Fold:
Amino acid sequence: MRKILVTGIGGFIGFHVSKLLAKEKNMEVFGVDVLNDYYDPELKKNRLVHLGFNPEEIETGKEIQSSSLPIRFKRINLADKSSIMEVFESFQPEGVVHLAAQAGVRYSLTHPEVYLESNMTAFLNILEACRFYAPAHLVYASSSSVYGLNGEIPFSVKKGTNHPVSLYAATKKSNELMAHCYSHLYKISTTGLRFFTVYGPWGRPDMALFLFTKAILNGQPIDVYNHGKMRRDFTYIDDIVHGIANVLLKPAEPSPQFNPLRPKPDVSSAPYRILNIGHSKPVELMDFIREIEKQLGKKAELNLMPLQPGDVLVSYADVAELANEYGYRPNTSIEVGVERFIRWYRDYYQV
Structure:
C-alpha cells in the first residue's frame, strides 16, 4: 500500500497524517480539501505551505505538487461527487484516510445544514468512490462524541452508542452505519476511528487549548464550562497519527465471532471495524488549565459557566483493541504536549 488519498489535508489531523505518511513512511500522498472558512483559512493554507506547496497555487483548483515531499494537492468539494471520482480515477489510491468533515459540537447547534453536506453527502461520495475503485482500506474519522449519554466509562467499542446529544455526533454515528452497509454489500474494508480530544501544534483554533492560550496571552477571560467539573481524554497529535498509520496498513477483516442471533457492536461479518483512539488517561479540566498557566507563566482569568448543550462531562477511551491488534501505545504526557503546543503557538504568532 504505497498510494494514499487523504481528505482534509488542510485540517489539523489531515496535515499531520499526510506529513507522516510521506516523510516517514515514504508513501505517495494525494490530498484534497475544500479549505472552508469554519476557522481561519490562512492557518489551513499555511499548513499546506509547510508541506511544500506554493501559496499562490493552493486555491486555484488545479492539481499541484509539493516541492519537498511526495504529496499532491487539489482543492475540491467532496459534496461534488464528480470531483472526487475524478481524483480516484486519476490517482487510483490503494488506501484512503478520510478526515474531511465539518467539526464542532456547538457549531452544529446553530448550523445544522452544514453537517448534512460535509459529513453525510461527502462521506457517501467517498464510499461510492471506494465501491468503484476498490482501495485496500478506507480509514475514516468518527468521534468520541458518539457515546453521548452513555455514562459507562471508560468508553468501549463493545458498548452501544444510540444516544447522541448533538447533530455532529449523530452524523458521525451515521458515518459508522453507512460504512457498515458498504462493507457488507461491496466488501469494502473500512475502519472508523473514534478520536478523543486531539491537541498539539498546528491545532484547531476552536479547541480548548488554542482558545485558552490565546485568551490568557491577551489578558482575556477564558470560558470554563460546567465550572471546570469536566474530564477530557486529551490525546497528543503525534500519538494519533502514528495510530492512524498503523491501522491503515492492516485492513479490517470479517470477524468469525459475529453471531447474528446475538449481534454485538464491536464485531461484524463484514470487513468492518470501529476503534477508539485516545490517550486513555482523562485529565481534569482545571488541571489542564493549570498546565497551560504553568507553561505560559501567566494566570488565567476564569469565566465559570454552566454545562453547554451537546457537551458531555467525561471522555475516556478504552483503547484495548487498538493496543492489542495494532500496537498502539500513546506516550505523550499533558506536560510535554502542552509545552510543545505553546512553543509552536508563540513561534507561529510571534508572541
Observations:
- The longest helix spans residues 112-133.
- The CA atoms of residues 277 and 350 lie 32 Å apart.
- The two ends are 42 Å apart (CA to CA).
- The longest strand covers residues 137-143.
